[in-house]
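Data card: per-record layout.
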Amino acid sequence: MSNFVRDNHARRRYELDVPGGQAFIDYRRDGGVVTMLHAEVPEALQGRGVGSALVKGALDLAREQGERVIPACPFVAAYIRRHAEYRDLIAASR
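The structure for this 94-residue chain is written out next.
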């Protein structure tokens, strides 16, 4: 599995190529805030760390781009709760 998560601006999602398909997080951008809406991992690969690698890569990209994050996806929100080093990315309530 590649650990390279890319930001596909045209499809408005973060993507990670995996054997047999692609894992992704759909998002919406508004200014400097990216709302992570839905994460999806191929069913055959669930429970193998693919989702965590995807979220980590997406959060690292958001940090690099100077963005704040709204974790609307429950999986993304749970990842941030378990990894305190990403809590500073959470956008203040609007």
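Known properties of this structure: Helices lie at 50-64, 74-82. The chain is about 25% helix and 35% strand.

See the next section for split statistics.
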